[in-house]
Specification:
The protein has 696 residues and is α/β, with parallel strands linked by helices. It has 21 helices and 25 strands. Helix 16 packs parallel to helix 20. It is globular, with a radius of gyration of 28 Å. The N terminus is likely disordered.
């Protein structure tokens, strides 16, 4: 009876009580037109129906000939060239906003184009962490769901609820969607005290073997993040071989009727599989109303798409009332900044919100997906999302329960797209080590990558170089290795300028680059550290047993080592052998290795046991490190999270203890666990000062 009453109430809301005053087509036609471009997969007619439904309700919620009308132009996400379409639509002066596309990879060119011309783009399901983090500060990409960091959290919670104490993940590497899961689940698993077993980067051609590898890791739960419906169906089929052995949990891409259809065509089904997907707020009745209107359940992103169009309509009213004196994007910001009680997504609810906006009052808008509350600084990321826990039963998706993301794990409400707290920090025992007097310090600063896409690595290296120069180092005590191909790169809008923050200082001048990675081999790196000077290598680290050696290395890393150039790799065992040789030859009094790369903890583990050496890494051996400070003008990341906070802290407090430095950088580095290795062979980190590596 309670469900029946709820359904009836939802149906009343659906009807919107439009009987109060009949709105004629002529009335609507006389209203001020606001045109939107809608970019969605046109093979799914249901999504087009949602947009039209929202427009109908907006029309019905207004009185007479006053107000606005939303008209839509349709573009097929499945057939259009996204990059070309983004350039065309973003430049159109007659379009107030763009709704869509659906997929993160397709949103990326639209986000870049719309940011440049300051046109709002509203996306129903784009949830890539990197995409939203890159454009959240610009204020023009409006995401109706939190980034998939929250979905990662929800998936891990489901695994824990099933009793799993260890997990592995199968996701597509270097894919805008899959990379979020690869980047964040290892980090979150550690924070939630789950044993993280393996990351398996799948390809569409090797799914069967990739699923087998994840199971072979010994994980009690395997989280699958397919990047498309066909991949999801293939993963489900592959998982069938391990029923009863391992729990499988699927991300939102699998919550798609197309997946069920693909499986049925292959003579199989998805019976019993479960997972997580973003959905509507169950308190708002959208799913029941949708079911009644369409005689089928809503698909992924249905409520968010409805809210996209509704928000455009409410912003159009605000923009119209302001007589065009504020931008359309500013009108959206105004509409979602309200604090008073407001209406919901239905006709009557929208009428209540519209009446308030016309009075210059701004309520909290309740969308079909929940309250449309956005990040207070950047505005464009919702602060919480509802996630379905679903299971396939009798060939259909059955919703078991709902959950919401946990804002308590964030540092603040701003930039909610990625600021999970790291809480499991290290504690360092007091050790006593005796060293001879300190004479000189030498530094090797390495940016191991090249090219505009790797801007951040060279920028971080230049930042470390400038820090050392300000501390009194001369170039004879620094060997700087960088490709030096970004300051005057054709993509650089500020020729001759390199920064690690959008408004930061120019780090490029003066710099004294000694070598380019393209000129050096790994053997050359070893020779430089061993002080083996030659005609090819005139600049080396000329240190001995009374000198401290600082190595700062920034670049790409894999579990198998540090990448060097396009084809070579410095393995953890290579590095350990080199460090042992430097120690044996007495090339240092103390050695500090600061390492910024993904999976950098593998090097720290390998070097454990080397006397008088300390390694501090951006991430542990299972995590990726995270880029930081995106520049819309540059279309590139300017820094890395660990390196930025490291240089910032050393610049402010160069006399700090190692323990204090670790705690500050650990808290400031989001998304990976800054890790310290071999402190037992080094010194008392609670009392020793890092100043000894910042004095030439």
């Amino acid at each position: 009876m309670r469900f029946f009453s709820f359904a009836c109430a939802a149906l009343c809301l659906l009807s919107g009580c439009t009987e109060e005053h009949y709105i004629t087509p002529d009335d609507v036609a006389k209203r001020t037109e606001y045109k939107i471009a809608v970019v969605l997969p046109m093979s799914n007619a249901a999504r087009k129906g949602i947009v039209n439904w929202a427009i109908e309700n907006l029309n019905a919620a207004q009185s007479g000939t006053k107000g606005v009308r939303i008209t839509a132009e349709w573009y097929d996400e499945e057939t259009e060239n996204m990059a070309a379409l983004a350039q065309t639509l973003s430049a159109r002066q007659d379009l107030c906003a763009i709704v869509g596309p659906l997929y993160s990879a397709h949103v990326a060119p639209f986000a870049a184009a719309c940011t440049r011309v300051q046109k709002p783009i509203l996306t129903p399901t784009a949830s890539s962490e990197e995409l939203i983090r890159a454009y959240s500060s610009s204020g023009y990409l409006w995401a109706m769901v939190e980034p998939d960091i929250s979905q990662c959290e929800a998936l891990l919670a489901r695994a824990m609820a099933r009793g799993a104490k260890s997990v592995a993940i199968v996701a597509k590497e270097n894919d805008l969607y899959g990379q979020t899961f690869i980047d964040w689940i290892p980090f979150q698993a550690i924070e939630l005290n789950i044993d993280y077993k393996a990351t398996v980067a799948y390809t569409s051609a090797t799914i069967v073997g990739d699923i087998a590898a994840a199971v072979a890791s010994g994980a009690q739960a395997v989280i699958c993040a397919p990047s498309g419906a066909s991949d999801a169906a293939a993963m489900i089929l592959a998982s069938r071989a391990y029923e009863g052995q391992t729990h499988f949990f699927f991300s939102d891409v699998a919550y798609d009727n197309q997946v069920l259809q693909l499986l049925q065509e292959q003579g199989n089904n998805a019976e019993g599989i479960e997972g997580v997907a973003m959905g509507s707020d169950p308190m708002e009745g959208f799913d029941v109303a949708y079911q009644s209107r369409n005689n089928t359940s809503p698909q992924l992103g249905s409520s968010q798409l409805y809210d996209n169009v509704m928000l455009v309509g409410l912003a159009a009213i605000e923009h119209h009332n302001a007589g065009g004196k504020k931008s359309f994007n500013k009108a959206i910001q105004t509409v979602v900044s309200g604090t008073q009680a407001g209406g919901n997504w239905t006709v009557s609810g929208m009428r209540r919100n519209i009446d308030a906006i016309n009075r210059g009052e701004y309520p909290v808008i309740k969308g079909a997906s929940g309250a449309l509350k956005f990040d207070a600084t950047a505005f464009t990321t919702v602060l919480s999302s509802v996630y379905y826990h679903w299971e396939v039963y009798n060939g259909r998706f059955l919703l078991l329960d709902y959950s919401s993301s946990d804002p308590s794990r964030r540092i603040s409400s701003t930039l909610s797209s990625w600021n999970w707290k790291a809480t499991n920090g290290q504690i360092f025992d007091a050790v006593v080590r005796t060293y001879p007097p300190h004479r000189n310090t030498y530094a090797l600063v390495v940016a191991a990558s090249s090219g505009w896409n790797n801007y951040r690595h060279q920028a971080d290296a230049f930042a470390m170089y400038q820090l050392l120069k300000k501390q009194g180092f001369d170039d004879s005590h620094i060997v700087l290795i960088a490709e030096d191909d970004i300051a005057y790169n054709s993509s650089n809008p500020e020729q001759g300028v390199v920064r690690t923050a959008v408004t930061g200082e120019n780090l490029y001048s003066p710099t004294a680059v000694d070598y380019k990675p393209s000129q050096l081999t790994i053997a050359d790196i070893e020779a430089i550290l061993q002080g083996n000077q030659s005609d090819r290598l005139p600049e080396v680290i000329a240190s001995d047993s009374l000198d401290n050696v600082l190595i700062y290395w920034v670049g790409h890393g894999l579990p198998t080592g540090l990448e060097w150039g396009n084809s070579d790799r410095l393995t953890p065992n290579n590095i350990r052998t080199l460090m042992d040789e430097l120690s044996r030859q007495k090339h240092f009094r103390k050695l500090l290795f600061l390492l910024e790369s993904c999976y950098s903890g593998t090097v720290g583990i390998a070097c454990t046991g080397v006397p008088a050496m300390l390694t501090i890494t951006a991430a542990n051996d299972k995590e990726t490190s995270k880029a930081f400070n995106y520049s819309s003008a540059n279309q590139s990341w300017l820094s890395d999270a660990f390196s930025y906070s490291l240089v910032d802290e050393l610049s402010d407090t160069p006399q700090t203890t190692y323990n204090s430095l670790y705690n500050t950088v650990y808290r400031a580095t989001i998304g990976s666990h800054v890790s310290v290795y071999n402190f037992g062979q080094f010194d008392n980190l609670n009392t020793a000062s890092i100043r000894e590596f910042l004095e030439p």
